[in-house]
């Protein structure tokens, strides 16, 4: 429940998403998050830092920790479901050229279609 609470807070998942390709400083991250307010950004970054999902580099940029990377991979099936859901709700609005990086990332406990590997020891 704690993870759902953390990731359910506005902007938390967006920050995780924007850090997926590598470290970002405060201002570039804020820009990628649609210029969210600085106070909300600081609050979310502090929460994610405290949860050890991200950490701050010596040059002040933020990046995902191994736990953050794992969380991102764990959320990939939800991202794929959201794409299917969006296509069902608005078939005309579905854009097959949208960023597919969430569905293209493999996870060691899944087979190619993203379903759980039955041999996985979870």
UniProtKB/TrEMBL annotation:
Entry-linked InterPro entries: HTH_HxlR, WH-like_DNA-bd_sf, WH_DNA-bd_sf
UniProt region (Disordered), positions on chain: 86-122
Gene3D superfamilies membership: Winged helix-like DNA-binding domain superfamily/Winged helix DNA-binding domain
Segments forming domain HTH hxlR-type: 1-90
Short name of any one Pfam family annotated for the protein: HxlR
Keywords: DNA-binding, Transcription, Transcription regulation
Keyword check for tRNA processing: no
Name under which the protein is recorded: Helix-turn-helix domain-containing protein
Lineage: Bacteria, Bacillati, Actinomycetota, Actinomycetes, Kitasatosporales
């Amino acid at each position: 429940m704690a993870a759902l609470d953390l990731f359910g807070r506005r902007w938390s998942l967006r920050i995780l998403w924007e850090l997926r390709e590598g470290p970002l400083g405060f201002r570039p991250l804020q820009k990628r998050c649609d210029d969210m307010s600085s106070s909300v950004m600081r609050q979310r970054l502090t929460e994610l830092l405290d949860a050890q999902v991200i950490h701050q580099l010596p040059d002040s940029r933020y990046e995902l920790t191994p736990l953050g990377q794992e969380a991102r991979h764990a959320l990939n099936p939800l991202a794929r479901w959201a794409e299917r859901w969006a296509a069902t709700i608005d078939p005309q609005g579905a854009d097959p050229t949208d960023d597919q990086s969430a569905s293209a990332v493999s996870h060691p406990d899944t087979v190619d279609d993203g379903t759980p590997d039955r041999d996985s020891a979870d």
